[in-house]
Amino acid sequence: MRKTILLTGGAGFIAHHVVEYFLKNTDHNIVTLDRLDYSGNLNRLNEVVAAAPESERSRVRTVFHDLKAELNPQIIATIGKVDQIAHLAAGSHVDRSIDFPMEFILDNVVGTANILEFARKCYNLERFIYFSTDEVFGPAPEGVKYKENDRYNSTNPYSASKAGGEELVVAYENTYKLPCFVSHTMNVFGERQHPEKYIPMCIKRARDKETVTVHSNADKTKAGSRHYIHASDVADALHFLLQYDSSKLTVDDFGGAKCPKFNIVGAEEMNNLELAQFIADTQGNELHYAMVDFHSQRPGHDLRYALDGSKMQEMGWTPQPVKKRLQQTVEWTLSNDRWLVE
Predict the structure, then answer these.
(1) DSSP letter string over 118-164?
(2) What are 241-284's pLDDT values in tens digits?
(3) What domains lie within the chain, and their CATH numbers?
(4) Is the predicted pLDDT of residue 298 greater than 70, yes or no?
(5) Is 186 helix (H, G, I), strand (E, B) or coil?
(6) Bridge partners of residue 183, in order along the sequence
(7) Is the pLDDT at 209 greater than 70, yes or no?
(8) Given the residues 20, 107, 135, 233, the one annotated as active site
(9) Helices 272-283 and 322-335: crossing angle, nearest 10°?
(10) Is 166 annotated in the active site?
């Protein structure tokens, strides 16, 4: 019998790649839960579902709901029985979280509580996976890569709200024995990403021979860096975790925390100037850029984030090379440049 997975935020950037991946690589029925706000776009879902064989398209259903409200009996009946839940819905724009912190507390903390309440009432739920972020750990000094159970150091309301949601997931594992996993993902890119994000912004400005702003240290000599990862690799990691035998896992936290956590990390670290240069080179264009002090330009942001991906690697999962994925994304985006329109 086919399993059913519930994806929250299904019309969002990462989740629509999960839909595409699951259509191609599983026989799951897929229910997406979305309110279709600023970050949700049904056209994303439409493109990936329309590209699937006609016989497979009926496996995807969309249910409209805002997770700031609890799931009422009608919504629950519309969703139907689910075997797995991946909670990707979230407010994720750091600048907006600084201006409107309560929006993010409601979306990322209250919203997580509401989907957890639904999950704990699901009969025989196999797994609940919460998508958290590298930003809960705060800035990473040179040479440091945070492991899954390192301490938090949230530097903006967005990361604090994701940490709050994460702790609720841990609490539901401890209190209700909900079968939860937590993942930390960082700097995801790919096709159909909102043009405000760094990589599509670089693609557009390199194409149009405009100046790319590169956030750097105060001396403007060192660009910020990240471990970039393609959304398809994130979907692949999710599928891997959903299938993984949790009995193989050992408690690796000195406090005995039971909720397993996993870092989903790109194959290599790139600084943002190298990234912009690669994007310009892929187009055969000269890069025009300006280094700016990230502290004065972007309060609440951090120069470097870094996660240790060794745990997932030891379990048997690794991502695709980042430059291969970047070239694929640049070429696709230039051929489908309606997605660069703001």
Answers:
(1) HHHTSTT--EEEEEEEGGGG----TT--B-TTPPP---SHHHHHHHH
(2) 999 998 888 766 656 678 999 999 998 899 999 999 999 999 99
(3) 4-189+227-264 (3.40.50.720), 198-225+269-302+320-340 (3.90.25.10)
(4) no
(5) coil
(6) 131, 262
(7) yes
(8) 135
(9) 50
(10) no
Backbone angles phi, psi at 254, to 5 degrees: -65, -20
Helix (H, G, I), strand (E, B) or coil at 258: coil
Pick the catalytic residue: 158, 172, 198, 289? 158
- Is the separation of the CB atoms in 90 and 9 below 8 Å? yes
Specify the pTM: 0.94
For 207, the token pair is 């194409």
Q: What is the distance between the alpha carbons of residues 42 and 10, in angstroms, rounded to a whole number?
A: 9
Q: Are 203 and 279 in contact (CB under 8 A)?
A: yes
The tokens of 108 are what?
């990322």
Distance of CA 341 to the CA centre of its chain: 22
Residue 102, both tokens: 């309560």
Please indicate whether residue 252 is annotated as part of the active site.
no
Q: Is residue 158 among the annotated active site residues?
A: yes
pLDDT at 47 exceeding the cut of 70: yes
Residue with tokens 């860096």: 225
Q: In what order do the strands lie in the sheet with 261-264?
A: 60-64, 29-34, 4-8, 84-87, 127-133, 180-185, 261-264
Mean pLDDT, range 98-107, rounded to an integer: 94
pLDDT tens per residue across span 118-138: 999 999 999 999 999 999 999
Vertex 105, ends 99 and 110: CA angle to 5°?
155
